[in-house]
Amino acid sequence: MPKLIKSQDPDALAADMIAEFIQQKPDAVLGLATGSTPIGIYKKLIEKNLDFSQVRTFNLDEYVGLSQSHPQSYYHFMQENLFKHTNIKKENINFLNGLVSDIQKETARYEDLMRQTPIDIQLLGIGTNGHIAFNEPGSPQDSTSRKIVLSQQTIKDNSRFFSPGEKQPEEALSMGIQSIMAAKQIILIAKGQNKTKAIHTALYGPSTTDCPASFLQNHRNCIFILDPHVDI
Ligand code: F6R
């Protein structure tokens, strides 16, 4: 079962855990998330002036059809919110490429890389529908990286990042549940009252495809860090 920590400051706690890990293992392999949840953690990591020169990263997901330089791409998000403020090497940043025509080949490439370079710490947010990465309800536990059609709930939740009239992608490439579960340690962060139901189901519901985060119950080293607004 995941370890549950309620914290007044989940960003500081998560950033401290990640920073300590990088100090102990300078070539740490980090699994990273985008969205609102990790922004504060990345800010705190930047402030710590860590040496990222040997750190390697894998991001969870990327929108289909957006280039890395597109302002709405998750690659761009990571550049702006973390990478460009550190000394991470470009060749150590791993991302799914949402522009490829051969998705099978691209997702196989990513899975191979993660097998060769297993993730030490995977940072996760959670969707209001219980998704982790873009594994929407219905995603099986043995799923690996693949193309996913986003649920209407996720499209609605993420519409806040897009201006009116701006085209919002409806598909993404995403690590699967199995890819995430292979990480040695998982830190899931949830902030805000609107995450209460998903967290409750993930922790106390049955471990089923209805709530993909509930599969984390089966991980040996998983921590949920919740802010005081998650009412649990
Ligand atoms: C982002 C990701 C998603 C988000 C989730 C929560 O890379 O994989 O699973 O973590 O949708 O998003 P926020 O943090 O914006 O509430």
TrEMBL record:
- Spell out the protein name for this chain: glucosamine-6-phosphate deaminase
Q: Which GO terms describe its biological process?
A: carbohydrate metabolic process; glucosamine catabolic process; N-acetylglucosamine catabolic process; N-acetylneuraminate catabolic process
Q: Which GO terms describe its molecular function?
A: glucosamine-6-phosphate deaminase activity; identical protein binding
**What residue stretches are annotated with the Glucosamine/galactosamine-6-phosphate isomerase domain?**
15-220
Report whether Plastid shows up as a keyword of the record.
Answer: no
InterPro entries referenced in this protein's UniProt entry, alphabetically: Glc/Gal-6P_isomerase, Glucosamine6P_isomerase, NagB/RpiA_transferase-like
Reaction(s) catalysed (UniProt annotation): alpha-D-glucosamine 6-phosphate + H2O = beta-D-fructose 6-phosphate + NH4(+)
Question: Source organism's superkingdom?
Answer: Eukaryota
Of the GO CC terms on this record, one is: cytoplasm
Q: Which organism is it from?
A: Hexamita inflata
> Which NCBIfam families does this chain map to?
nagB
Query: Source taxonomy lineage?
Result: Eukaryota, Metamonada, Diplomonadida, Hexamitidae, Hexamitinae
Question: Which keywords does this chain's UniProt record carry?
Answer: Hydrolase
Q: What is its EC number?
A: 3.5.99.6
